[in-house]
Amino acid sequence: MTITQLEYLLAVDTYRHFATAAEKCFVTQPTLSMQLQKMEEELGVQLFDRSRVPVRPTELGKEVITQARIAVAEFKKIEEIVQVQRDGVSGELRVGVIPTLAPYLIPLFITDFIKKYPQVHVTIQEMVTSSIVEKLRLELIDVGLLVTPLQDKSIFEIPLFYEAFVGYLHQDHPLAEQKEITPDNIDSSDLWLLNEGHCFRSQVLQLCNRAKSSKNMHLDYESGSLETLKRIVETQSGMTLLPELSVLDLPQNKKAVIRPFAEPQPLREVSLVVHRSFLKKKMIESLREEILSHLPDGLRERNPVRVVKIK
Question: Of 35, 170, 208, 209, which has the fewest beta carbons less than 10 angstroms from its beta carbon?
Answer without folding.
Answer: 209
